[in-house]
Amino acid sequence: MQSRTAEEIEESTERLLHDLKAVVHDGEELLKASAQDLSERGAASRKKLAAALEVAKDTRRKLQERAAAGVEATSEVIRANPYRALGIAFGVGLFMGVLLNRR
């Protein structure tokens, strides 16, 4: 299992949110462009795409809320217990160093 830092997790979350925004934007543009195609298949495809866009928007919103809550909770814990957080970080770093040097 690969361990990731808070910065890497935040960067990954930001990239995911950016990608979701791009998908939503592209989907909305596609809906606008296909508004003239009102055939039966086109209308059905348009409805499916609209539903998928709503799910993507909802997922993006939930991810943003979870990411913000996680960052805030981590910040609160570190601010409430700075020496404990420093000790844990030191211990994890020491443990990782010992493991990596055993190779």
Can you walk me through this structure?
This protein is mainly alpha-helical and 103 residues long. It is built from 3 helices and no strands. Helix 1 (6-33) runs antiparallel to helix 2 and helix 2 (40-80) packs across helix 3. It starts with 5 loop residues before the first helix and ends with a helix. 0% of the residues are buried. The model has no long low-confidence stretch (mean pLDDT 79).
Into how many domains do the coordinates divide? 1
Q: What is the first-to-last residue Cα distance?
A: 17 Å
Main sheet record? none
Q: What sequence of helices (H) and strands (E) makes up the elements?
A: HHH
Mean of residue pLDDT values: 79
- Helical content, roughly? over 70%
| Number of H- or I-type helical stretches | 3
Task: Extract low-pLDDT stretches.
Answer: none
Number of E-type strands: 0
What structural class is derived from the secondary structure elements?
A: mainly alpha
Shape annotation: elongated
Assess the beta-strand content as a share of residues. under 5%
Rg on CA atoms, Å? 22 Å
